[in-house]
Amino acid sequence: MQGLEEVCFQIISYSGTAKSMYIEAIQQAKAGDFDQADQSMKDAEDIFVSAHKVHMDLISKEAGGEKQQVSLLLIHAEDQMATCESMKILAQEIIDLYKDKYQK
After folding, report:
1. Which active-site residues does the annotation give?
2. Residue 41: what pLDDT?
3. What is the pLDDT of residues 39-60, one digit of tens each?
4. Pair 78, 10: CB distance under 8 Å
């Protein structure tokens, strides 16, 4: 079984990678490369799903009676996931705005 620290670092890593890819997708859309922006969004989502799976496993273990000690690292990991989710939503909105701009 993985230790809590390792699980937290996995969540942080997956979320950080996905967040960077969402930003990259915005930059691609800004340059007018919408196919690549869409692909980057899909790739980022695949990575973000990995973060969710690791997090859900942690939640499932706790629901099954395996209590986890709340740590600053766990709070940080969950914060990174929440920030990534916000970035995903904003990235899609910004990409849509660039698409509208370039289509006019």
Report:
1. 76
2. 98
3. 999 999 999 999 999 999 999 9
4. no
Q: Helices 34-63 and 4-30 meet at what angle, rounded to 10?
A: 160
- Looking at residue 42, its amino acid is K
Amino acid at 32: G
Question: What is the rounded CA–CA span in Å between residue 5 and residue 11?
Answer: 10
What integer pLDDT is reported at residue 1 of this predicted model?
44
Helices of type H across the chain: 4-30, 34-63, 72-103
Could you read off the pLDDT of 75-91 as tens digits, one per residue?
999 999 999 999 999 99
At position 39, the amino acid (one-letter code) is: Q
Alpha carbons 33 and 21: distance in angstroms, whole number: 14
Nearest residue to 96 via CA among 20, 19, 29: 29
The two structure tokens encoding residue 20: 């960077």
pLDDT > 90: what percent of the chain?
A: 88
